[in-house]
Each structure stands twice: as structure tokens, then as C-alpha cells.
Fold each of these.
Amino acid sequence: MNGIAAAVVLALALAAPALASDRHPSLAELETELICPTCHTTLDQSSAPIADRMRAFIRARIAAGDTGGEIKAKLVAQFGPAVLASPPKKGLDLLVWLLPLAGVVAGAVVLGVLARRWSRGRGGEAGARPPGDPGSNGRPPLGPDVERRVDEELARFDS
Amino acid sequence: MPLRVVAQGLALALVVGLLALLIWKLSHGPPGKLAVGSRVPGFTLSRVDAPGHLALSSLRGKVVVLNFWASWCVPCKQEAPLLESASKRWRARGVVVLGVDSRDFTGDARRFMRKYQLTYPVVRDGSGSRADSYGVDGYPETFFIGPDGRLSRHLVGQIASRAQLDAGIRKALRA
């Protein structure tokens, strides 16, 4: 329960700056999230003429009060989705976000199952002979004749 | 044992999947330069100069001077008057100059067209995917397409002169 509450608080803490940043985007921030269509690097690393033109466009849209999402949508309308450094979280592109997560979950499940099998195997070995069993000292169990003779000797010794 | 089989199956599926992805990427990657004589890739793109779309196939039977350009490209500015002049001079002979504004803002393209008084049709290739299908790796590039839809000549970079442009058109008309 405490874990869920902590996760919710963490999610809210991370979501708040993200929302603020979308409402009041900065050029420097958007430059890292957009790709120059001619040189295929992020805008902050490009000095191509179209990258300069895109920076001018972003400055103008920020001044006009557009959100980060609106600016990106306008650039996608001009240059296509490849202008985004990160694929959109919808449609087939959602797979890019979900597959790594699925991989981590699958890995955790496999590790969990392997750990469980390993611990069960060790438990099974230890439990193969109940405590107190004469064979549990690592030697083979005594035969019935030998066992009977030992019992007789012990009984004689006790009397 | 069954877990090992499942793990091996998953690993095998992963390897096969990655191989399939590699093959798909190689087969769908941008092609190299078009060879002279080869059939050019078709397209239907929205027009910059007018509403609606234009299909390259609608120009079959005519010589097409297909010019890939962008408003931010300096050599494109220098060759624009040559293309406009050729468009007017050769129109009656069934020659169409078709501009493809690529990796550009539509507004910038329209300003460019007004500034250089371009009257020939221009279509929009914002993502540059059409340019990629023609193997364009810089702007401008010009493809002379014969009436049969095959590439007759290809010029990389700025058209040097009216004579060079006319020679390309004459060759395509003979194709």
C-alpha cells in the first residue's frame, strides 16, 4: 500500500514539471526533441539552413503562446512524424515504448521462475530424507539384518 | 525442462524477428540513384500552387522536367528563372516542368514561388520521402523523364545554363 502511494507521489512529482514545460516550452528544450529533416540529427546539433528556419518558426510560435505539443504538431504537419526525436505514444509507434517495458517484465518473470525452481530444488534435496534418518549422514542405510542386530546389541547394553 | 524449452523458443523467435527486421529494413531502405532508362517512381502529392493533388502518372505521354527544390536552398534560387523560362518556351511542345518542394515549410515555398514568379505546377514533399525514392541527396536535382515514363537524363546540383536545360529536354523528347 505504501509502495503504491509512493509511486503515485513520484508520478505526480514528475508529471507536474512535464506539464509546465509543455505549457511554456523553451527553444533549447524543443531543439532536443525535434529532428532536422535534411541532416537527421536533433536541431540543437544542426546548423543546416532548414534547422535555422525551424528554430525561427519555434521562436515565433513560443512568442505566440503555443504549447510544446502544438508546436510539434505543426512541425509534424509540415515534415511528417520523422521530425519527432521520440516516436509518438500511439498506434504502431506505441510498440517502441511498450516493447522494452515488456522485455523488462518478461525478464523479471523468467528470473523469478528460475529463482523459485532453484530454491525448490535445494529444498527438495534437503527434504529427500527426513531429519533423523540414519541415511542422512551421507552413508547408505543399514540392511534389515544389520539393523536388527544393532537393536539387539543396544537392548542388551541397556539391560 | 519445459522452462528451458520455452526460453530457447523465445530466444530463437527473437533472433528470427531481428533477422526479419534487418531484411525488411534493407529491402525498404532508400534506393540509390535512378539509372537512365529506368522507369521513375510514381507519386501523387498535394499541390503548392493550387488546391488538390497531382499524380505523376497524369503526365504520361509528356516530357516532364522534375525539379526537386527547397526555398532555403541557394542554388535553387539561382536556377528558378531558368526553369520558369523553359516551362513557357517548351509548353507548346508537350513539356511540363514540375517542381517538388521538399523538406520545406509550405509558406516559405509559396513566398519563393511569388518572388521568382513561378507559374509551373509545384507539389509538396514535406517529409522528403519522394525525394528519397528518387535517390535525391541534395538540392536541387533535376530529372528529365521521357513520354514513356523512363528517366532520360539526371542533373545533380544547379542547372548551369539554359543550353544545358534545353539539351536535357531535347534528349527526353527523342526518347
Amino acid sequence: MYSKTVMDHFKNPRNVGTIEGADGVGEVGNPLCGDMMTIYLKIEDERISDIKFQTFGCGAAIAVSSMLTELANGKGLEEARKITNKDVAKALEGLPKNKLHCSNLGADALHMAIQNYEDRKSGKTKPEPKRTEKHEHTHGETCYCPYCDAELPEGETYCPACELEAGKHH
Amino acid sequence: MNIINLDHISANPLLPEVQEAMIKAIRMNYANPSSQHKLGDQAAEALEKARESVTHLIHAAIPKEVVFTSSGTESINHAVKGVALALADKGKHIVTSNIEHNAVLRSLRRLKMMDFQVTSVPVDQYGRVNPDDVAKAIRDDTILVSIMHSNNEIGTIQPIKEIAEVTKQKKVLFHTDAVDSVVVVPIDVQQLGVDLLSFASNPFYGPTGVGGLYVRRGTKVWPLLDGGVQENNKRAGTENLIGIIGMGVAADLAVKDMDRRIAHYKMLKDMVLRELPNTIDEYFVNGHPEFSLPNLVSVSIKYIEGESVVLMLDEENIAVSTRSACAAGALQASHVLLSIGRDFADAQGTMVITFGIENSEEDVNRFLEVLKGAVQTLRDISPLYAKAAQA
């Protein structure tokens, strides 16, 4: 089901762990399929000098987290902001369609960690970020029915083609 | 490759005797059992022999009470929709439980689109239905109660006999989905007192693509498939004779071997339950401690997700199954696990192992050893575990 690259990152995940005194932390929880991910950033000269992750989730979610940290590590913040979930999936040589959906949290967590860093810098926020409980489709990814692969209308969890509930937001 | 299969609820290998019988049946080039000539008679004889074997297996009163179908799923659809359609003029209310298989749930959802009403009774923390709840749920317009014999995710066995007493007294038909029960526990349809019972051939090492539906004599049920008068006018379409012959042989073998199989399953299950506390911590064993399938262990492991466990074990050539939403492709937590009170995250970390007759104590030891490592690895990655450790 998974590509070799996905399995490699699942079996040998890179950059697992936390960073003591991180400069930015992003936590994303996706109640739709239960994945949760935390990204820790160390920033030096507006550049990611270290990145670590912790993930609770399926094989795809773990591989996405690992690949994301590889893509982001060493990048300038502006460049890192441009990493999309699509980029991560592409670097993993593709993900099954229904896994694209539940692995969307990767880039979201990174962007949130960067935002957290910027907010701290400007004194807008306390050091501990608030976990977003609702997975937001902020990057225009399409959701697919896990059964028939039909595109789901935006925000819908009900597949009109197979009359099935694709997932419920709890 | 030597793979340890601990996922027998998904598929069972065919017994060698079943394979031989089916190969022989293929070579026989059987004609149509409905034909009036000698070739037809030969086929009909083979068909009825298999029906007798299955009749004997489930202790039906007469062979005509056994209808061959294509699967457990078809049998369930046939029972639920067939009774609903046959009795719609009497009433449009059906009682079921919160933890049924999708074959029942989605059949009922379809019926709801046709103005049927459904009452679903809850289960306790072990996944058991209270027969009193069934009695309370039955109304004047109730035509059917459908409650599974055993649950495929947690193994809990329902008080079917007690529920049958309720339905008999209330004069409502009772169907039970026994797909995962037949030959894993002894099944006697007359003793259970059910009107309809769904089962399949593969759980007792017969071929997939064949199932059976027990229909008590005189029970009104419409066919799902209309056409010829095969299967005593209950299921049209020329029979899958090769598969049915395989099921018949598997039934004969099961009758002889059942006690040994059940004792073997039980020994392996006891071993897992005994050793699990020495292997991992922070987990729940799902299902009833006593009324449960002897071949099934369902465990919710905290802080990790089930599909990851399956993949890790698969890397070490051990096949298990999970009820995690991610793996199911359904993107929903298991309704069964939520019904017994597991929260979403714990439901996600649920692994189901099911034993077969070829599994050994050595298999269990290897499984436990690999599981220990896999759980530790995944917990080291998990933010939930880190948070719990801090708290």
C-alpha cells in the first residue's frame, strides 16, 4: 500500500524527539482520524537550525512527519513557510488518496511552529501554543471519499456518490 | 517466507481435505443441480450431501432450513432485508444492537431509507446486550430483532438464548449474525432458539465465496435474488457447487475436530492474556472475560495507533489486524469500541489477534517479543506518551 520511501521513513523516522527551550512549537491534532503531531523548532538567524517531531498516528502520519523535518531542516523561515503538504507527499513518492487527507497535518504543524516563533518574538503569545483541535484545510487540499475516491465537496464528510459518511468531526 | 498468521478472522487457509474435495469437484464438471437428467441428478446429489453436512454442523432440524449463499454478508443482508420486505405490511420496526457488523448496520440504513424504523440497544462495558433492553425496545410494529452472536472486534458473545426467549414471547422474528462463531464455539440453532442465523464457510477452513443462512421452517423471508427456484425458492441462481462442496467437507471435518480446535484456541488465548502484563503496560483487554470467542484477543494499547503496530509487526512477518480508523479506511473510530466506552485515542490503538489451528505457543512467544519492541518504538515517537510521562 505504501511506497518504499514511506516505509523507510516509517521504520527509521528522522528527527524524532523534542527540543529543550525550543523557539517555536506547533501542535496539530486531527480528530478526524486521530493523528496528532508536535513540531519543535530551533531558529538561528531566521533559519531552522534544528527540528524535531513527535507523532501519534498511522504509518503515513509518521512518515509525513519524518519527511517534513528533513525538508524543513536548515531552511530559511520564508522558504520553510512555502512547504506544503503536497510537497511532503511528493517527496514520499506519493501517499494513498485517503492517507493524503489524514496526513495533511504535517505542513500545518510546521507553519504553526513558525507562527508561534514569530508571535513570541513580537510578544503576541505565551510560549505554549494552543493545540488546534479542528483540522483546517487551509491549503486547498481536496478530500476524497475513502471508498470510491470521488472528490468530496468542501467541508463535507458525506459522499453523495456512495451515500456514506466519510468521517465525522467529533 | 514464514509468516505467523494471527489474523484468522480476516482469512483462513483451506484444509487439505477441503482443497482435494474442491479440486475433485472441478474435475467432475458437475452439471446444473436443477436439471432433470442424470447429470443434473449427480450434481443435485453432491449439493444435498453438502447441505446435510452443514445441517448437522449447526443442528438444524432439516436440510431445507439451510440456504447456501455467497458469503456471511449476503446471508445477513438476506435475513435482515428479506424479513423486512416480507413483513412490511405487519410493521416497519426493527431492533438491533449498537455493536453489529456493518452488514447489519448498512442493511438497516438502507431499510431506513425505505421508511423502516430502527431501535438500537446499548451494550455494557464488556460489549454485552441486556435481554431486558431488547424486551423494552420491542413495539407492536416490531417485525425483527437482529443481534449478533459474537462480535468480530472484541469477541463478546451475546446472551442469544435469553434474547430468543424474549422474541418468542413477543412473537417477533430473531436473526443472529454468527459468522465469527460457527465452529469457534459450538452452535446449535435449535438450542439457541433463533429463527435465522447467518454464517460463512471460511471461518471453519472452507472456501470464501460461500456462506449459509439458517431459516427456521415456516419463517417468512423474501429472497434477495429473484429468478429460479433454487435453494428451495429462497435464493435464485445456479449454485456455486464447487464452493458448496468445499463447505460441506469443511463442515464434516469441523464436527469431528471442533473440541480439539476450541481447546487449542483457548490455550493460546490464555497464554497471551497471561503473558501480556509481562510484555507491555497501559493497555485494555476488550470484551467479556467469560462470554468471549476463544480464538480472539482485542487489546487497546494506550498512546499509539493501530495501523503503525500492524506495519511494525508485518515487518517481522507477523500478521495481525487493527480497528484503528486510519487502517480501516473509514476514517471513523470503531463504533464497537466507542460503544464499550473506549475514548477515541484508545480506540485508535486497538489490535485484534485471532488464532488458527496451525498457530503454536512458539508463534505466541515470537509475537509477544516483537510486540514489546514495536510498542516501545511507537511510544518513543508519540507526543501522547511523552505528555502522560510528564503528568
